[in-house]
Amino acid sequence: MSLPNKVKIVEVGPRDGLQNEREIIPAEVKIELVDRLSAAGFANIEAASFVSSKWVRQMATSSEVMAAIRRKPGVVYSALTPNMRGLEAAIAAKADEVVIFGAASEAFSQKNINCSIAESVERFRAVAQAAKLHGIRLRGSISCAFGCPYQGEVPPDSVADVVRRLRELGCDEIDIADTIGVGTPGQVRRVMERAAREFPIGQLSGHFHDTYGQAVANIYASLEVGIAVFHSSVAGLGGCPYAKGATGNVATEDVLYLMQGLGIETGIDLDAVVDAGQFISQQLGRKAASRAGNAIAAKRRFA
Ligand code: HMG
Ligand code: MG
After folding, report:
1. Cα(281) to centroid(ligand 1), Å
2. Which of 1, 30, 238, 295 could tie 248 with a disulfide, CB 3.0–4.6 Å?
3. Cα–Cα dist 226/192, whole Å
């Protein structure tokens, strides 16, 4: 199959990227990050998470962030909503898309959202119905689709089963997520092809973490089977509080550099993303985890 001409990159740095930071990041910093990202050309930014602050403290400023960002027309600002309480907060915050997040692994479902996969789907039903009623886009996310920190292997059929359940809830897009970054390209091809038997491939997305350095290769393998939506995090920020040892999402700068090289259109200004990556890394007091981002920043210094 030939590669797509165009892909959608969903920037998840402000949520997935920052949720695991120990020090509470001031809302103003998160707001500036989101605004820099919308200015860079992203059509979809995951900006908030309406979860229990007892479970993820860093996301407690989500309403404040959503209220103060400069909304760029046409940009979809997404928020995670594990239950009705989260959905109500997302509606109040004027989120354009809500994300129900389950897992392909029973063990991870229990650790992350404190219920079984079947219970989570029941909980999501009301969230999905209410989102539809309010005309809000609905995305489903499936964690641990390539391996689980508690259970180990996750069969492709388990992923496909959750894809089917999320399809039945009316999801507009479904993420196949490598939460702990253990997947490899052959496996990615198999899982994506299996998932595509349950849901249109154009509405499936690849959400890769880079723990084992396979994320860019996994994106390439996904492109080869027809996936055209990818999640990434500026400066490679990230990690999941319920997946110890997992590193950040694949860095957006690296993904954009890959797409540029392949001649695949993204609509995003790589230089502006490099600036955003340097900005947030300075705020966090460490070097960006993006190879391309750091290379471009270094080249500028010596130009
Ligand atoms: P629970 O303890 O089973 O439920 O948590 P609960 O109903 O007993 O709630 C506990 C407390 O939280 C209560 O407060 C609730 O009111 C409150 P208390 O009465 O004790 O004072 N609460 C809420 N507060 C704010 N917003 C809410 C909300 N709901 C309840 N929406 C629950 C169940 C789902 C709430 C909890 O497990 C939770 O919040 N989990 C979220 C975990 C999380 O955010 N993980 C990271 C995101 S997933 C991820 O990163 C993976 C992804 O990126 C893809 C990938 O990489 O794989 C998406
Ligand atoms: Mg993630």
Report:
1. 27
2. 238
3. 9
Where would I find the H helices in the chain?
27-40, 62-68, 84-92, 106-113, 117-133, 156-168, 185-195, 215-224, 252-262, 270-284, 291-302
pLDDT at position 303: 80
| Average pLDDT for 1-8 | 94
Q: 142-199 pLDDT, tens per residue? A: 999 999 999 999 999 999 999 999 999 999 999 999 999 999 999 999 999 999 999 9
pLDDT above 70 covers what percent of the chain? 100
Q: Three-state SS for 18? A: coil
CB of 250 within 8 A of CB of 219?
Answer: yes
Q: How confident is the model at residue 241 (pLDDT cuts 50, 70, 90)?
A: confident
Question: DSSP 3-state assignment of 178?
Answer: strand
Q: Is the CB of 85 under 6 A from ligand 1?
A: yes
Measured from the alpha carbon of residue 98, the closest ligand is 1
pLDDT category at 242 given cuts 50, 70, 90 is confident
Ligand 1 centroid to 7 CA: how many Å? 31
What is the C-alpha to C-alpha distance for residues 258 and 209, in angstroms, rounded to an integer?
Answer: 16
* Residue 79, Cβ density class (10 Å: 0-12 exposed, 13-18 middle, ≥19 buried): buried
As annotated, the active-site residues are: 240
> Which residue's CA is minimally distant from atom 37 of ligand 1?
113
Region for 288 from its dihedrals, namely left if φ exceeds 0, alpha if ψ lies in -120 to 50, beta otherwise: beta
What does the pLDDT look like over 195-207, one tens digit per residue? 999 999 999 999 9
CA distance linking residue 162 with residue 272, whole number of Å? 37
Q: What SS3 class is residue 228?
A: coil
